[in-house]
Fold each of these.
Amino acid sequence: MNRWTLWLGLAVSLPALAAPRDEVASVASSSDYVVAREASSVSIDTLRSLLQDGSASVRLTARAMLARSEHPELAAQIDAAQPRLSTRDGRPRFALEALSRPGAGPLVLERLLHGGDPLQVRLALLGNLPAHEAWGTWVAEAWPFLDEPELRATSLQLLARTSDGGPLLERGLGDTAPLVRAMAARMSLSVTGPWQPALLGAVTDDSAMVRASAVRSLGFLGGEGAADAVRARLSDASAEVRQEAVSAALRLDPDAGSWPELLDLRADPDPGVRSRVRVQLAPP
Amino acid sequence: MPSPAEKPMIPMRRGTMCLLLLAACAGPELSFEDAPERLILLPDADDDLGNGKADWRKSGGDGEDIASLVVPAESFRGIGRSETLILALPEGTRGIRVWHEGEEVLSGSETSWEVAWTRGEDLELGVQARDPGIEAALVLRHESASGEVVREISLRVSSAPLVLAHHLRPAEHVWVMDVEDGVSAYNNQHMVSVYAEVLGDDVTFVDQFQHQFDVWVQDELQIGSVVSEQGRIDYVLDSIRDGGLDPLPKSLLGPDVAVETWGTQGEQSTYDSFGNLEVSPPVTVDGVEYPYGRIYLGNRDRFGPHSGLISFLQEQRIQAPIELDTSWLCVGHVDEYMSFLPDPTAPKGYRVALADPVLGLELLDSMDPATALPRYARGNTDEGHGRPTVGSIVSDAGFRATNGEVVELHLDPLRAQLKAELGLTDEDFISVPLVFEEVPGCFIESGVVGVAAMTPGMVNLVVLERDGVTDVFLADPFVRDEDTPVNQDADPFIAAVRERMPQHLQLHFVDNWFVYHMGLGEVHCGTNELRTPQSGWWQDAAHLISETP
């Protein structure tokens, strides 16, 4: 085979190889995902091969399209499912066995990402993902597409239900949304890993919510530098942080109850801080 | 549901009484020489007329709960031709009407009436109240031609207060939610079957399909009673939460059953649910006796039950409400962490079952970490907690931290508050093992996550005393290697509860996992009760209402 024959062969075969992958990528990024998906004619074998694709969005889409091909009835059920129920505090709840059936996971995630549901319904869908063993991997893949901070924060909360949440927690600690960073700091107590250095950094985060969570977790985790970092937050501008610093300080150092800056908080302008000092210094 | 005619309310026909007891029919007398200390009315908020509306709205002066009042003929002696006799309600009086010969002569808009009296004839009046707990004055005044007061007498008019029944009162009827779709694990059929077996005909099962899958029957309505010497009206508070169960309280309106909503619909929060409105048994606080107990309800800073409801409850006065912090709970209801139970061996005759995470953790720590927990193993939030073994719970430092904070920051201060405001002592409390978890997706406010029971909340229980037998229905905690409600004796949480509970109680641990526990509620949330009210508040609680507000 001379080089011209090789080039000719590639020119003929490349579109055939590249087109289905591009098509799935195009579905994944389509503004009307459902229409694009329905128009797609990618074969099952190709979809299977795309489960190892380098792009997370292609993998997610291929997995969902594959599940749809393999379980059409289940897909229809999940598409049509409505959260008829509500939790006692009024959040929507599916309580639908189909969502935890084998094969349902990619379809639940697909609806979460592309279903156009309100946030509370998407949170209910997210809560159903951990019925499936690989949910952590899927959520890590979907992380950039979880557009609402509440979705990412709730994903982190669910890490208490898995033993390998480290990579996701790490992403959470560096997230752009304060709610997510705060939740990551909070969940560092439940996910095994060397989180203390990151928490020491988070106590000076721009967001009070993040500082409060980091201070709280440091109070339980301890370690070198924790007491000093927490002590410094007793004079934080945020009352929420000062409250957490009171509790954390007393956990880290039994003598913290005699620190002047902690005792000064008995006269803090914020009633929540005063109350926290009173409760925490009360004899058992 | 029973039809209105079958509703298990005590029939008390005031009109019939009036016919049988002619003396009573005439009503008390109001003259310048003498007046009763007080005229006590039943609020005319029920539907004796059977027209689908509260009689107050439609009665036209002929409702059975309109009290007779007679101004005897001798009161008119000495009134000159140019002088007048005035009957008046003070400005601002609301919810009281006076009728004469079928005409409304005094009301909120008409506060003064020149009496149309006839020499030698008694003047017969009807006095009607709209709501429970109204305090007003009715003034009879003889005025000279120049408008000077010649004689005057004032009669205190009270409508009987609403009394909410506490858990120690005998149960007359019970409503239990019946959830079953025939195919999935999402049902409460074990709970239903236990109730049916124990209660027989004294229970009404409420169909979820007829109520848009709203299963929170405790939260939609609260049933109390209004009692006077003339009889009893059962008074249903209809929550402004207005879920699919909203038609249920409304359907109860009928003879001797009032249904009212307090608060503004559309302004509801979780705190307006009636699992967040409970009543203690009789208490004495700083020397003040509350023979009907005190209402307790949960709030969060400036958030809480609607101010309209709180004002109404405060106006009833004999169960002076206290507010407890439920801000840390995802749902935020007081029935999530405490309940009262009868105990004849206790100094006060009752105990308080209070959630105890310390005990819960001790019990979990004492178990083999490898113990499988099938009910907790399912990972999705609709079905389980993603905790396949005891070890997967107790090894989670975040979980332990959460429970430590619940105790330190919330339950210990709450216990101190209960001692101060309900006059309780340490020996009045029973510890019930319960551990909490942060609820995924439950963001109470910026960055704050609410907690709920991880082990089914056995304090969220129902006490039913009937014919001297006291049954208690509470959640099966499933802290054992079982996926069905069997082998309960092997459950350390159940054993701990059995050991601590008063021994005369018949405990029924029911499977409420999928419908209630995973929906952030328990047995109490799926049940409602009508209880026999205490009577005689005008005697034993007079000290609480002696001052006109």
Amino acid sequence: MAFFRLLAGPVLRRAKPGRICIWIATDAPVSARAEISQFPQSYQPGGPLKIIGASHDNAAEARTIRLGAQLYVTLIQALPQEGAFPQDRLLAYDLILDGRRLADLGLLSGPNRITYDGMPLPTFFLASQTSSLLHGSCRNLGGPGLDALPCGDELISRHPQELNLRPSVLILDGDQIYADHLPSPLIRHLTQLGNNLMGWEQTMPGIPDRLADIPVNGRQDLATEKAWFTSVGAQNQLMTFGEFASLYLVAWNAENWPESFPPFPAEKASANTPRAEKLEQAAKHLLDIAEKTPEKEYEDMVHRLEAVRMGMPFVRRLLANIPTYMIFDDHDITDDLFITRKWKENVWASPTGRRIVANGLAAAWAFQCWGNDPDLYPDSFIDAVSTHLGQRAADEAAAKAYEETVWNFPDWCFHIPVRPTTIVMNTRTQRGYDSDEGAARLLNEEGLRSIDRAAVRAGYRCGDPLILVSPSPVVGYETVEGMQERVSRYVGPYKFDLEAWRANLDGYTSFFKYLISKFDPRNVIFLSGDVHYGFTISATFTWQNKTLSIVQLTSSAQKNTGLALRLIGLSSLFAGRTDRHFGWDSLAEDVEAAEPVSESESTHGTAAQPAEDMTSSARGRSVHVVKGKSAPMPATFPAGAKLQEAEPVQGKGLPDWQDSRTYEPTWGYRSLPIVGDNNLGLLRFRSGNLLVHRLLIPTDQGTRSSTAIVRAVPGKVILKPILESEPADSDR
Amino acid sequence: MLMEAPVELMVAVLGQQVKSDSAVKRLIELDQEGTIELLGVAVLAKDEEGKVTIQETRDLNEAEDAVLGALAGGALGLFAGIIGVVIGATAGAVAGYVTGHVADLGMSDAHLRALAQELPPSTSAILALIEHESVEPARQELQHLVSGLSRFALAVEAPGPAGEGG
């Protein structure tokens, strides 16, 4: 009997009292079943578990999609035997694939073990109220620094049965793979693996060459000139569906890695160095830290990959033991995806670009999104994908339907079945464009309606707290966002990623007004990534006498740090602690920005936040925003400007809106507000409306952390005595 | 339903002759080992003449960090190492992480003054922001060093006025 091969998984996906979803990828179709078990209250290792739910081997409860001749993805959906799966109880699962259990597949012991000490099976729990969660983004296998994703596994391994300390959900909020910026030692392997998975040698429209014949590092020109991409790190841009699928398999399972990486290829191609990395290397060169030839660079990349390989079993175990939700961002397909209207139109007009984007989005669906909420994807969508991929791309009509269906799919946004209501926003494919190359609104009207629908499905009630996942921070680090905006005036929107929320001021303010008017939440927590540094910000947005209380938690990158990012972190020591903006709703074509006040006046606050409200340790800085015609840049000047001073200039009375963002200090490995090291975020909800945001940082000495404590809602924090001083050991 | 636990401020008065840096170092080691989750540490010290100081801590143990820390320290008045320099007496403004949080998060200068007054000369107290679940293992680890221990739960008391940031 021929056995199938488990290519990736199990990955625990959407999990709620009514249904547990488990995703696997195999090289052949399998009959798949799952059993869900409950631990007794006092579990002794080796003791029996009680089976409380299962899936059956039918299309409804174990749907398999054929994506290639040797690539099948299956979503197994286990249902409770009675009522609902219990919350706040430790649960476990086993899979039966073609009659073989996880133990038979070698996953319960040995190097591929996906269980924690003392646990007979992979475990998880359904929290009635989220007490702690993990979140992170930007995992570039070839990026500098150590991989932070295994830090999540280490955390769970310490507390497998302590549900008050074990996080209940993992949210990966963008750039789970880097389809551009691909480490050069991987490209040949991915092309070959992709062809094997699909069962044929894939080709790309507009590219006559065999992809296997393109030199390593030789795809930049194709990406730029054929696909109209703007990534400057596209030397090894993934193109075919098989290549995209292969990178997911490599990112999640070391068994898909080559036994060793080939030596530096004899053929020479264009330099393999993205611009940002060149800058970093130049800086290092100046510091006499390193000088990199292409060969050395290749060797370094191999070393980085080998370091990632060491942690891969822990990544696989983590994904098997915590309900995991994912949303893609640009690098999951290519840098700058849909950044401007012109980008989108150019790439759609290019047969090569159109197909690459479709392949990247289809792979993101199969590997990331399907398990978020399988009910969101109608058969017509799945059929369009599987039909095209099953026909070796020879059918033009099927190819057209594939591209149009995937490009225009409206419902990547979804809710996570937890409390507080948690909605994961798609800020990539439903953007609004006010001009050809101006900064986009990250959500257009349809995008906002997607949130509405998700909120309805989640049963959200106005006034409840709300967690929104946005790949890009809604409230960002002023110093960098301001620099991006200013520099982009001269170099265009692509080189420095002009796609922060606030880069389109209308989009930014409209989003907050939408949140206030539609949901009026008690408070909002944004979970984000993208920027390659982590931080905690307390913020507010005030409009029509309502103030939205905001906490922005950002964890990035899992693996993509660098000297430049560490310096950004260091810059936060010198930035002000609080930044403020204000502006008017109506257009003011004749308005000029207020003159900057002198630096000597830049001490305390604005009329929106009187000086006496600021702590003596806070060095204030304000930003004055004057609304203009199209995605205006904010005019900035140091703190001290009073709202009243703006009135004569504006002639429009008090501003219609104002915001503030306060960078929370951290303690630990980096005592900086902005942390530039690789990290994975751990959020703990504490009693008394406090949040603890801990950035777990992998180091050669083990996991370290930088921690911020932040109020979930505004208010004075008090200390309540728990017990009085008590005598300790008497012999001291 | 899992109960949300508080963030705590643990005030551990050290016995006379006990070096605060060894106790702090042990707490940080426990945090790094994953035994406890420490959210910040400072040391309140009273010398033999009754002068009170607060020392902030950092967790620096890489050469590279030392470089960055020294650079940062130039701006903050800190230097690299487990124990930073004195930030200020309790009567003054407190700007360090723990003391800043303690001030921001509910412990007024008056609290600190009162605590300092109770402190015998030549002794010190550890102010540790710590997860509730970590208090017991931390206390067990420090019990032979500590002469008294107080615990406080941190909580946001009431919503601020409209427009006030959080």
